[in-house]
Specification:
With 158 residues, the chain is of the alpha/beta class. It has two domains: 40 residues, no CATH class; 98 residues, GMP Synthetase, Chain A, domain 3 (2-Layer Sandwich), CATH 3.30.300. The chain is built from two helices and nine strands; from the N terminus they run βββαββββαββ. The strands form three sheets. A three-stranded antiparallel sheet has the order 1-2-3, with no helix packed on it. A three-stranded mixed sheet has the order 4-7-9, covered by helices on one side. A three-stranded mixed sheet has the order 5-6-8. β5 and β6 form a beta hairpin. The radius of gyration is 19 Å and the shape is elongated. InterPro entries: KH_dom-like_a/b, OsmC/Ohr_fam, OsmC/Ohrsf, OsmC_Ohr_Peroxiredoxin. Pfam families: OsmC. This is OsmC family peroxiredoxin.
Length: 158
């Protein structure tokens, strides 16, 4: 490591007091707001399986999205510095979380399914290899204790 540190801060505010606080399991909403200085707020909640609002992002959504976004940003950077021109990119990532008998749980895996479209004449093999390098460099993937698999697809425009 280069020895440099980067620091991040957010404020998470619970918005779910419906008059009696947490007087009972069903007495409160799981709604929350995630904020960081100078950025728009993110509406959050728990997973609908845990009485959350399905219209809001839950922590599990955010973890899968963080892994996907980190991989994409590294991949685009590596393509740019290696002469591979990406013209479109999408990822339909999916994560699996397993509950244990105590009601807790953990993620067991995440699968990233990036689909990159390359400009005509781009090196498809190099573009595929850069997914491996992006995965190795991703800060978020290097920070989790479960497997993160990458099932990439590359298309070259004709």
């Amino acid at each position: 490591m280069s020895g440099r540190e980067h620091h991040y801060g957010t404020t998470v505010t619970w918005m779910g007091n419906q008059g009696s606080g947490t007087a009972g399991y069903k007495a409160y909403s799981r709604d929350l707001e995630i904020a960081a200085p100078g950025k728009p707020p993110i509406p959050g909640s728990s997973d609908p399986a845990f009485r959350g609002d399905p219209a809001r992002y839950n922590p599990e959504d955010m973890l899968v999205a963080s892994l996907s976004a980190c991989h994409m940003l590294w991949y685009l950077h590596l393509c740019a510095v290696n002469g591979v021109t990406v013209t479109a990119y999408t990822d339909e990532a999916a994560g699996t979380m397993a509950e244990d008998s105590s009601g807790g749980g953990r993620f067991t895996d995440v699968v990233l399914r990036p689909r990159a479209t390359l400009a005509p004449g781009s090196d498809r093999a190099k573009a595929m290899a850069l997914h491996h390098e992006a995965h190795e460099k991703c800060f978020i993937a290097n920070s989790v204790n479960f497997p993160v698999r990458v099932e990439a697809q590359i298309t070259v425009e004709s």
